Amino acid sequence: xxxxxxxxxxxxxxxxxxxxxxxxxxxxALAYDEVDAPIFVGDRHPAVVSDSIEYGLGPEGRQNxxxxxxxxxxxxxQQIIVTYPDTVAGTxxxxxxxxxxxxxxxxxxxFNGAGQDxxxxxxxxxxxxxFVEGSKLYVDxxxxxxxxxxxxxxxxxxxxxxxx
Length: 164
Prior knowledge:
This protein is mainly beta. It has one domain (20-158). Helix content is 9%, strand content 41%. A hairpin with a 2-residue loop joins strand 1 (24-34) and strand 2. The longest helix is centred in the N-terminal third of the chain and has 15 residues, at 2-16. It is globular, with a radius of gyration of 17 Å.
Protein backbone atom coordinates (compact mmCIF):
# COMPACT_ATOMS: atom_id res chain seq x y z
CA UNK A 1 0.00 0.00 0.00
CA UNK A 2 2.84 2.39 0.86
CA UNK A 3 4.52 1.73 -2.51
CA UNK A 4 1.31 2.67 -4.32
CA UNK A 5 1.19 6.05 -2.52
CA UNK A 6 4.78 6.79 -3.54
CA UNK A 7 4.01 5.98 -7.19
CA UNK A 8 0.96 8.29 -7.17
CA UNK A 9 3.03 11.03 -5.60
CA UNK A 10 5.75 10.68 -8.25
CA UNK A 11 3.16 10.61 -11.04
CA UNK A 12 1.52 13.79 -9.77
CA UNK A 13 4.89 15.54 -9.59
CA UNK A 14 5.82 14.46 -13.11
CA UNK A 15 2.47 15.64 -14.47
CA UNK A 16 3.14 19.20 -13.33
CA UNK A 17 6.85 19.11 -14.15
CA UNK A 18 6.38 20.02 -17.84
CA UNK A 19 5.57 23.69 -17.23
CA UNK A 20 6.52 26.70 -15.14
CA UNK A 21 3.45 26.78 -12.87
CA UNK A 22 4.30 26.43 -9.15
CA UNK A 23 8.05 26.75 -9.79
CA UNK A 24 10.18 29.07 -7.67
CA UNK A 25 11.92 31.77 -9.70
CA UNK A 26 14.02 34.83 -9.06
CA UNK A 27 13.86 37.70 -11.50
CA UNK A 28 16.09 40.69 -12.08
CA ALA A 29 17.57 43.07 -14.60
CA LEU A 30 21.10 42.89 -15.95
CA ALA A 31 23.17 45.05 -18.30
CA TYR A 32 26.72 44.44 -19.49
CA ASP A 33 29.17 44.97 -22.29
CA GLU A 34 31.36 42.24 -20.78
CA VAL A 35 29.74 39.43 -18.78
CA ASP A 36 32.44 39.59 -16.10
CA ALA A 37 32.04 43.37 -15.62
CA PRO A 38 28.30 44.19 -15.48
CA ILE A 39 27.13 47.78 -15.80
CA PHE A 40 23.96 47.09 -13.81
CA VAL A 41 22.92 44.13 -11.65
CA GLY A 42 19.37 44.43 -10.40
CA ASP A 43 18.00 43.05 -7.18
CA ARG A 44 16.80 39.45 -7.33
CA HIS A 45 13.04 39.26 -6.75
CA PRO A 46 11.74 35.81 -5.69
CA ALA A 47 8.28 34.46 -6.55
CA VAL A 48 6.40 31.25 -7.11
CA VAL A 49 4.78 31.07 -10.55
CA SER A 50 0.99 31.31 -10.22
CA ASP A 51 -2.03 32.67 -12.06
CA SER A 52 -1.14 36.18 -10.85
CA ILE A 53 1.42 38.69 -12.14
CA GLU A 54 4.76 37.75 -10.57
CA TYR A 55 6.64 41.06 -10.80
CA GLY A 56 5.93 44.75 -10.92
CA LEU A 57 9.44 46.18 -11.22
CA GLY A 58 10.26 49.71 -10.19
CA PRO A 59 13.44 51.75 -9.80
CA GLU A 60 16.00 50.15 -7.48
CA GLY A 61 18.66 52.84 -7.28
CA ARG A 62 21.26 53.97 -9.76
CA GLN A 63 24.34 51.89 -10.58
CA ASN A 64 26.85 53.42 -12.99
CA UNK A 65 24.12 55.86 -14.10
CA UNK A 66 21.61 53.03 -14.80
CA UNK A 67 18.34 52.06 -13.08
CA UNK A 68 15.34 49.82 -13.70
CA UNK A 69 12.69 50.72 -16.26
CA UNK A 70 9.36 49.90 -14.55
CA UNK A 71 7.93 46.71 -16.06
CA UNK A 72 5.25 44.11 -15.41
CA UNK A 73 6.25 40.45 -15.73
CA UNK A 74 3.59 37.75 -15.97
CA UNK A 75 4.94 34.19 -16.01
CA UNK A 76 2.55 31.55 -17.27
CA UNK A 77 2.95 27.80 -17.63
CA GLN A 78 4.62 28.02 -21.08
CA GLN A 79 5.11 31.80 -21.55
CA ILE A 80 6.62 34.94 -20.11
CA ILE A 81 4.84 38.21 -20.92
CA VAL A 82 6.58 41.56 -20.43
CA THR A 83 4.53 44.78 -20.48
CA TYR A 84 5.10 48.34 -19.28
CA PRO A 85 2.92 50.69 -17.19
CA ASP A 86 1.34 53.87 -18.54
CA THR A 87 4.02 55.98 -16.87
CA VAL A 88 7.03 54.93 -18.98
CA ALA A 89 8.19 55.09 -22.59
CA GLY A 90 11.55 55.26 -24.34
CA THR A 91 14.27 53.15 -25.93
CA UNK A 92 16.48 50.71 -24.09
CA UNK A 93 20.21 51.57 -24.33
CA UNK A 94 22.27 49.10 -26.38
CA UNK A 95 25.14 47.50 -24.48
CA UNK A 96 25.92 43.86 -25.34
CA UNK A 97 23.07 42.72 -23.05
CA UNK A 98 20.36 44.86 -21.46
CA UNK A 99 17.44 42.88 -20.18
CA UNK A 100 15.95 40.39 -17.82
CA UNK A 101 17.19 37.19 -16.20
CA UNK A 102 14.72 34.65 -14.84
CA UNK A 103 16.43 32.01 -12.69
CA UNK A 104 14.23 29.03 -11.94
CA UNK A 105 15.62 27.44 -8.81
CA UNK A 106 16.15 23.84 -9.88
CA UNK A 107 19.15 21.58 -10.38
CA UNK A 108 18.09 20.20 -13.76
CA UNK A 109 18.20 21.65 -17.27
CA UNK A 110 14.76 23.27 -17.31
CA PHE A 111 14.40 24.46 -20.89
CA ASN A 112 14.48 22.58 -24.16
CA GLY A 113 14.32 25.99 -25.82
CA ALA A 114 12.68 29.42 -25.88
CA GLY A 115 11.71 31.96 -28.50
CA GLN A 116 9.60 35.00 -29.10
CA ASP A 117 5.92 34.71 -29.96
CA UNK A 118 6.09 37.35 -32.69
CA UNK A 119 2.35 37.19 -33.48
CA UNK A 120 1.42 38.26 -29.94
CA UNK A 121 4.30 40.71 -29.37
CA UNK A 122 4.18 44.35 -30.44
CA UNK A 123 7.95 44.62 -30.98
CA UNK A 124 10.35 42.11 -32.48
CA UNK A 125 13.45 41.11 -30.56
CA UNK A 126 16.78 40.35 -32.24
CA UNK A 127 17.25 36.72 -33.31
CA UNK A 128 19.72 36.09 -30.46
CA UNK A 129 17.84 38.10 -27.80
CA UNK A 130 16.33 35.09 -26.02
CA PHE A 131 18.62 32.38 -24.73
CA VAL A 132 18.79 29.82 -21.95
CA GLU A 133 21.59 28.52 -19.78
CA GLY A 134 20.42 25.57 -17.69
CA SER A 135 17.53 26.86 -15.59
CA LYS A 136 18.12 30.54 -16.48
CA LEU A 137 16.21 32.38 -19.20
CA TYR A 138 17.67 35.61 -20.61
CA VAL A 139 15.64 38.21 -22.56
CA ASP A 140 17.73 41.01 -24.13
CA UNK A 141 15.77 44.23 -24.70
CA UNK A 142 18.74 46.34 -25.93
CA UNK A 143 17.74 48.89 -28.56
CA UNK A 144 13.98 48.26 -28.31
CA UNK A 145 11.36 50.95 -27.97
CA UNK A 146 9.02 50.43 -25.01
CA UNK A 147 5.87 52.01 -23.65
CA UNK A 148 2.40 51.24 -22.32
CA UNK A 149 1.35 49.47 -25.53
CA UNK A 150 4.46 47.24 -25.67
CA UNK A 151 4.00 43.48 -25.28
CA UNK A 152 6.88 41.02 -25.47
CA UNK A 153 5.73 37.40 -25.35
CA UNK A 154 8.31 34.63 -24.91
CA UNK A 155 7.27 31.01 -25.42
CA UNK A 156 9.23 28.38 -23.52
CA UNK A 157 9.58 24.66 -24.08
CA UNK A 158 9.93 23.29 -20.56
CA UNK A 159 11.69 19.95 -20.07
CA UNK A 160 10.41 17.25 -17.78
CA UNK A 161 12.17 18.53 -14.71
CA UNK A 162 10.88 17.75 -11.19
CA UNK A 163 9.56 20.66 -9.19
CA UNK A 164 12.08 21.67 -6.55
